[in-house]
Write a structure and sequence with these properties.
Blueprint: E1 4-22, E2 28-48, E3 53-55, H1 68-80, E4 85-91, H2 102-117, H3 124-132, H4 138-143, E5 147-150, E6 155-158, E7 165-169, H5 177-182, H6 195-201, H7 208-214, H8 216-226, E8 232-233, E9 240-244, H9 247-256, E10 263-269, H10 273-283
Parallel strand pairs: 3-4
Antiparallel strand pairs: 1-2, 2-4, 2-5, 2-10, 5-6, 7-9, 7-10, 8-9
Helix pairs in contact: 1-2, 2-3, 7-8
Length: 284
């Protein structure tokens, strides 16, 4: 039995995000295209025999038991009826409120990591269902493959996309998903498209105009990136991205942006770093 495990919790991009309508329960029907980035938080798990779940790294403004990492661990613990616990440490790189999936990715890595550490033998469908109860984006991280998502984001169709290099700009603001989806200026009537159209024609982000109006920092970041390539917002968050054919080109553009705009360069990936790492561990 493993006593410890360290795994990445990778970022994602929403290559587009269409809002089709709003349900009576307040949730939104959407279509989006997810792709992963080779850029990640890192989570380390150590086995405990006493059943205690302890996250040793506080996230500012988030109580210990409200952290999605702790919620995911406790959800798997309850589902599997295990008596084991874990000490968990988090090395944070992904910005909160950035729209690149930090909290959801952390939750998915926790589910997959503790499933391996505790040997609970849950399959991917079970883990995805546990993840969906924590957040609409968690299942795509559990499954670990680029996907076309529908419904509230839970209906996933795996896709194979080009894997370009991305420049991701990180304006220093926290964008609340709830606030964006509650904004009356958000359009909620984009017509549904097919999977084939999503892969060939792409789309836009219905949340982008609202976020730009609410956050000057995001608007400025998009304007800077747009000078070099078509820039888009990812998800409902602050981060903006543009794609490039090579790392050299992406690095060059990153250096040309204003120095007060934080950026990183990362390669797009159809299979997440988390799943590639787990596959390597299983082969040992």
């Amino acid at each position: 039995m493993l006593n410890s495990l360290t795994l990445p919790a990778p970022a994602k991009l929403n290559l587009f995000l269409h809002i089709l309508g709003r349900r009576d329960n307040g949730y939104h029907d959407l279509q989006t295209l997810f792709q992963f980035l080779d850029y990640a938080d890192e989570l380390s798990f150590s086995l405990r025999q006493d059943g205690v779940i302890k996250l040793h790294d506080n996230v500012a403004g988030v109580a210990h038991d409200d952290n999605l990492i702790v919620k995911a661990a406790k959800a798997l613990q309850a589902h599997s009826h295990t008596s084991l616990g874990a000490d968990i440490t988090l090395s944070k790189r992904l910005p909160m409120g950035g729209g690149i999936g930090g909290g959801s990715s952390n939750a998915a890595t926790t589910l997959l990591g503790l499933n391996a550490l505790w040997q609970t033998r849950c399959d991917e469908d079970q883990l995805a269902a546990l993840g969906l109860a924590l957040g609409a984006d968690v299942p795509v991280f559990v499954r670990g493959h680029a996907a076309f998502a529908e419904g509230v984001g839970e209906r996933l169709s795996p896709v194979t996309l080009a894997e370009p290099w991305f420049v991701v700009a990180v304006p220093q603001v926290h964008v609340s998903t709830k606030e964006i989806f509650c904004d009356e200026r958000l359009t909620r009537n984009t017509p549904a498209i097919t999977l084939a159209a999503a892969q060939t024609l792409g789309g836009h982000n219905d949340c982008q105009p609202v976020v730009e109006q609410r956050y000057e920092e995001v608007r400025n970041a998009l304007m800077q990136l747009d000078k070099f390539a078509s820039a888009k917002l990812t998800g409902t968050g602050a981060c903006c991205f543009a794609s490039f054919a090579s790392q050299a080109e992406a690095d060059k553009v990153s250096r040309l942006l204003q120095p007060d705009l934080h950026t990183f360069v990362a390669k797009g990936s159809n299979v997440s770093m988390l799943h590639r790492t787990l596959q390597t561990l299983h082969q040992k």
